Amino acid sequence: MEENPRGWIHGDETAKAMLSRILTERPFLFLPPLHRVPLRVGNVVEIAGPSPSAKSQILLHAAVNCILPEEWKGIRFGGLGRMVMYFDLDCRFDVLRLSQILKHRIMEAYRSTNNTYWKEKGEHQKNDAPTTHMYLCDDELFLDCMRRFLYIRCYNSFEFLAALKAMHSHSQRESEALGVSVHFLMIDSIGAFYWMDRACQPMPIGGSKRKNVSLQSLAEAVVQEICKLLQMQPVLVLATKATIFGAGTSGNDAQRLAHDVNLPILRSTSSTRAFGKWCSEGKMDSRTSSREGEKLMYREYMPSSWQSFVTHRVHLQALDEIISGGEYGTLLTYASQWVQPPLNIKDKFAIRDDGIFLIT
Amino acid sequence: MAESNEPQAKATASVSSSGNPTSSLSRVSKCPETLEEGKRSFSDDAGFARVQPMIEDWHQPWLNGVELLEDSNHNKHFLPTGYEGIDVLLGGGLCEGQLTEMVGPSSSGKTQVCLYSAALVADKHFGVVMFVDTCNSFSPKRIACIVDQLSSSFSGEAKERRLKRVMSNIFCHSVFDIFALLDVLHQLEFKLKQQVKSGDTKICLLIIDSISSLLTPVLGGKGSEGRLLMVSAGIILKKLANEYNISVLVTNHMVGGEGGILKPALGESWKSIPHVRLQLTRDQGSNICNVSILKHTFMATGRTAKFVIHSRSCSVQDGRGR
């Protein structure tokens, strides 16, 4: 009994074991704007911005990244090969967009491997079998990936709560069937039922013992359900939030945000610092927001229980600039800024069918 | 992943069970407690197993990507609007299962697109069209005129028969306030629920021209009731579209924004409701309209196309309408 906790504390771990543990808990995800901060399972990330600011697109690209395998039949895809649970509260998810992104990613991986293959073998084999072979295995991989995408649509907060309650047992069933675990829990978008829940009148039925249904109590229940899930089955939560009040320009908000930004990063661990240094060396200075103009800020409307549940928060904005994306035609650009943890960097990115790209 | 949490949970649990139970319990943080609670309620408790099917009744079914794709391929087709520019731009037309919004200033061709797609969809046997008319814009004469144009090669009697068929496939409801609209939509949902069992001819296009004239009077002010009504209408429209494979087309007007630039009415909360937003513009005195994509589920924003609205230069006798 005495030895057990001590052994647990002093437990040695090989570097390999540690790396594989870290990589499952905290897989590296190069997906602007999510690449700025180290995200790990258990984190709750809120992606806020007006419509359109590419919020859902970021979710879809993250989802494709997650459902793609690391490697398949000798070809590297660089995905996580795990499941995604997608809660569609906005009811605007289009499966065609998901399959479009997935197909682009698969084709891109094939193209790059074939190119190196041809380079090694010489030009004369270019019209050989690989192309036909590629289309044959394409479908199998595609369906494998699509099966790892779990989707549910909710038309009101009560359906959402019921779905959250049933989520664990469903994901376990699917995990057993597919042999992989869930990595992402996605919610698009968390404020979808705000106006409906806000109008909930406290009902006198059942006396004072019954909990009243209100915006606050519903948000609390949602947070509680997700908390429960996170303890049983660690996942990374990504939630989008549409700004329904327009860009907040009121003095109150500006003040609050300025206050937030000035706060020291209390939770900054050594890894945060190391990561920040590593991925933004040299770029940090050239893209500070002071030069870019005003900060992105929006009026908060979610109840405090949700606000305090969120561990990371990024704000997005569509820009007027349009850049040319080669074969993809013209691309719209977006700006992102981390509010929690407060990073003084404003990234610009564009979205293509095969990924999200930083613009320098 | 679950295994990595296991030792921690056990360790805390064993600490709390040994020694002084009351004091250690109070010291134990809330997390392990809820963990134990959650575990019990999910797997160990037979009670949860019993209520689980009930909970599954309360939410929509879980689908995986393959099932979603199958549903999309089999049930969600494109309905042509009849205007080549729009149909090419949208990759085939209005998508079933989606809510499409057309926004544009007065006389930019919104109602014409509504009437033309209603006539075409009713004509091509795609199904029944429901036209919710909020500002007396529905014109049976115009429909007759469109059908006349479409069947110019037909003889008199065949034309007559075709017109009758088209007209009987379009149902028009006049609605003048948001409550009446919600009422119509709920009734429609109820009817469709019954219809799925009986298998009648299905409704495939629902047009609301214009939804903004119902919503603007209730919006504004300090209260949230207006936005509640707007979001409720949006959600039920999307629900109808998705569950019963209906394409919903609504129109919206433009208002002056900052600096006098026109912007779509209905504000920020409405923006997250339609799947597809199209903006129509028309130059003064010309019958060429421009359409551009403001938002689309998988197409790039900003793509544009042109289409021509034909003038009313066709002979239709009065009394032929509904």
TrEMBL record, chain A:
Report the domain of life of the source organism.
Eukaryota
Question: By its UniProt entry, which SUPFAM superfamilies does this protein fall under?
Answer: P-loop containing nucleoside triphosphate hydrolases
Q: Name any one GO molecular function.
A: DNA binding
Residue stretches spanning the membrane: none
| Domain RecA family profile, residue spans | 19-244
Q: Which PROSITE patterns match?
A: RECA_2
Provide the GO biological process annotations: double-strand break repair via homologous recombination
Q: Which GO terms describe its cellular component?
A: Rad51B-Rad51C-Rad51D-XRCC2 complex; replication fork
This chain's protein is named DNA repair protein XRCC2 homolog isoform X1
UniProt source species: Elaeis guineensis var. tenera
Automatic annotation (TrEMBL), chain B:
Sequence intervals crossing the membrane = none
Recorded GO terms, molecular function?
ATP binding; ATP-dependent DNA damage sensor activity; four-way junction DNA binding; single-stranded DNA binding
List the top taxonomic levels of the source: Eukaryota, Viridiplantae, Streptophyta, Embryophyta, Tracheophyta
GO terms (BP aspect):
DNA strand invasion; double-strand break repair via homologous recombination; reciprocal meiotic recombination; telomere maintenance
Protein name, entry field:
DNA repair protein RAD51 homolog 4 isoform X1
- Indicate the family of this protein: Belongs to the RecA family. RAD51 subfamily.
Which cellular component terms (GO) are annotated to the entry? Answer: microtubule organizing center; Rad51B-Rad51C-Rad51D-XRCC2 complex; replication fork
Q: Which domain of life is it from?
A: Eukaryota
Organism annotation: Elaeis guineensis var. tenera
Polar residues composition-biased segments: 1-27
Going by the UniProt record, its keywords in alphabetical order are:
ATP-binding, DNA damage, DNA recombination, DNA repair, DNA-binding, Nucleotide-binding, Nucleus
Annotated region (Disordered) at 1-36
| Intracellular or extracellular location(s) | Nucleus
Q: What sequence ranges are listed for the domain RecA family profile?
A: 75-254
What does the function comment of this entry state? Involved in the homologous recombination repair (HRR) pathway of double-stranded DNA breaks arising during DNA replication or induced by DNA-damaging agents.
